[in-house]
Amino acid sequence: MSGKYCPHFVVKGTTEYLGVCFLDGTECTFDEPALGNAQPLYPDAVDYGPLENNAEFLIYEGANAVGKGRVLGRTVPYKVKQQRKQVPYVPNCIYWPLGDPPGNGCRHL
């Protein structure tokens, strides 16, 4: 998983979505238990206190519950490198479609 699967946990009996990021874990097979380590994504802005030892939770992807789990223990989290989004290059120019374009077809702003 290496920090690439980031669902939400909702502790049973609550309604708050708690964003987490799985750091590692065993391979998941439908209807078979798996172990994994997850880290809070927003520890400075969200209270993750409900995820205490033995707390049961549902795993959500958007509005869909896709799994369930139980907290087996808590440790001090470490930082996960944020994934950089690839942004397409858009030149800072105006295209001149009619007539003779100035220079390379762009007028720099």
- Distance between the first and last residues' Cα: 43 Å
Radius of gyration: 22 Å
Order of helices and strands: EEEEEEE
Regions with little confidence, pLDDT below 50 for 5+ residues? 89-109
Strand content: 25-35%
Overall pLDDT level: 77
Overview of the structural elements:
By secondary structure, this protein is mostly beta strands. The chain is built from no helices and seven strands. The chain is 0% helix and 33% strand. Mean pLDDT is 77; it is low at 89-109.
Topology:
Blueprint: E1 8-11, E2 18-25, E3 36-40, E4 56-61, E5 64-70, E6 93-95, E7 106-108
For this entry, give a set of tags.
single chain, 109 residues, 0% helix, globular, disordered C terminus
Please give a quick description of this structure.
The chain has 109 residues and is mainly β.
